[in-house]
Amino acid sequence: MKKALILVAEDDVDDRFLLQTAFDEGGDHELLHFVENGVELIDYLNAISDEGGNSYPEIILLDLNMPKKNGKEVLLEIKQHPVYKKIPVIVYTTTKNEVEVRKCYELGANTYIVKPITFEALRKVVESIKSYWLATASIPALHDS
Fold it and tell me: How far does the signal peptide extend, from start to end residue (predicted)?
């Protein structure tokens, strides 16, 4: 069975390490591909598109507070694209502000998760993401645009 590819836009090296560790501890060994900012995220998706679009990520974990192009700018760009808009985007950020949450949903976020404070809580969040987005949800094929 093909391993799920998760694209993670996260500029903090410690958060990347913790996410990788939490996903690895689950035992399913999803493939996480990390980018450090919004420009890299869009470049990554465009490179897949240029290669024929057969290896898009199943989900995108998107931090809001990134250099070069922030998460809301990237979210808007993804959700306006005819193919990329089908990729579920999980906003994964430290910002717990009702205005920010509402704005992200208005821009097309599929869900909004505030980064947990403890590693144990992070493991539970990762298990919830995997259980719902990789095992339960039905997501349209991206190459059928």
Answer: none
Strand partners, 9: 35, 62
What HEC string does the chain produce?
A: CCCCEEEEECCCHHHHHHHHHHHHHCCCCCEEEEECCHHHHHHHHHHHHHCCCCCCCCEEEECCCCCCCCHHHHHHHHHHCCCHHHCCEEEEECCCCHHHHHHHHHCCCCEEEECCCCHHHHHHHHHHHHHHHHHHCCCCCCCCC
The whole-number average pLDDT for the span 39-53 is 85
Q: Domains of the chain (ranges plus CATH)?
A: 5-136 (3.40.50.2300)
Contact by Cβ (8 Å): 119, 18 = yes
1, 39, 57, 92, 102 from 16: Cα distances, Å: 25, 17, 17, 12, 25
Single pTM value for the model:
0.88
